[in-house]
Amino acid sequence: MRDYNKVSKFLEIPREVISNVPKITITGFDEILIENFKGIIEYEDFFARISTAIGNININGFNLKLNQMTDDDLLVSGKIENIDFEEKNLK
C-alpha cells in the first residue's frame, strides 16, 4: 500500500486510480457508488454483497436496485440502512 501512496502523491493521482482499492461514495440514505468493484456475490431487494479486491461490501436496506453498472463501477439505489465490510485475509 505504501508504494501506491508514494506514486499517487508524486503524480498527483488519486490512489484508487492506480490500485484496486475500492472508492465508495454515499449520497444521503438512498445511493451508494462503488468504484473498482470485482463482482456481485449476492443480490436481493433487501441485501447486496459486492466483491472488491480488498474484501466484500454488504449493503442492507429496502427496494435496493443495481443501477448504472459498468466493468468497474456500480451504483446501488434504494433505502440504504446499513453498510458493513468484510476484509479479505491477505496472508
Protein described:
There is one protein chain. This protein is of the alpha+beta class. The chain has one domain: Immunoglobulin-like (Sandwich). Helix content is 15%, strand content 56%. It contains two helices and six strands; from the N terminus they run ααββββββ. The chain has helices at residues 2-11, 15-18; strands at 23-27, 31-35, 37-43, 47-52, 55-67, 73-87. A six-stranded antiparallel sheet has the order 1-2-6-5-4-3, with no helix packed on it. β5 and β6 (73-87) form a beta hairpin. The longest helix is centred in the first third of the chain and has 10 residues, at 2-11. The protein is globular. The mean pLDDT is 86.
**What is the helix fraction of residues, given as a range?**
10-25%
Question: Within the CATH hierarchy, at the fold level, what is the topology?
Answer: Immunoglobulin-like
Order of helices and strands: HHEEEEEE
The figure for the number of domains is 1
Query: End-to-end distance, in Å?
Result: 15 Å
Rg (CA only): 14 Å
